[in-house]
Amino acid sequence: xxxxxxxxxxxxxxxxxxxxxxxxxxxxxxxxxxxxxxxxxxxxxxxxxxxxxxxxxxxxxxxxxxxxxxxxxxxxxxxxxxxxxxxxxxxxxxxxxxxxxxxxxxxxxxxxxxxxxxxxxxxxxxxxxxxxxxx
Amino acid sequence: xxxxxxxxxxxxxxxxxxxxxxxxxxxxxxxxxxxxxxxxxxxxxxxxxxxxxxxxxxxxxxxxxxxxxxxxxxxxxxxxxxxxxxxxxxxxxxxxxxxxxxxxxxxxxxxxxxxxxxxxxxxxxxxxxxxxxxxxxxxxxxxxxx
Lengths: 135, 146
Fold this sequence. Notes:
heterodimer; A: alpha+beta; five-stranded antiparallel sheet; elongated; B: alpha+beta; Thiol Ester Dehydrase, Chain A; 20% helix; 35% strand; HadA-like (chain B); HotDog_dom_sf (chain B); MaoC family dehydratase (chain B)
């Protein structure tokens, strides 16, 4: 599908199941991010949060999944995101991507892809951009 | 206020040996179902030396080693007030199971907004493999809520 890239083209969206505590515990171990604010409700409450919440890097990893199922990872050149809002327990994230242009990077033609994570209420949690070489 | 003297500070190197078990665990944790990330034969057929590390995996190097925690301690940022503001990667070469990746980071900037209510720490890192080749560059912005 990447052979026929056009500006405005949308990547097939990726919808995740609602964030639960098991997912956060697994990501804590797998990512090496042991910050208790993501797994320990007592710590989270002391920090002024209503409950634990998702690691930003978990949301970014989901965005990575959207990109690498559209194009092989070996074509990914850059991937930058801003964490705009907290992804709470129960949030069901949909990852979306859209080609916003074709640019040249170090002599390679690349698709510039805008990516976002939003929850079931339409709130954007993470927004970013990737550059994917078209070969 | 975070002491600006830390701008330019370089972290101790963080070494992360990539192994298939950890990469499969990471794939499971993020719900990855593409077999290129879990099946060695599929990965090799796709041109990788072994299972490739997914795009965001190398962030783990400085988590596992404790380098990020050390930086937060040095700068006096409690975990309870920490947020991840931005993250970026530039990719140069694949990192696969069997590779030993070393990450060294540098504090590029520290600044504040809203009269000091929010402070930002910008960190730039390089990840190199056992041959010394640049695999990826990482950019991280942490936010401290004061």
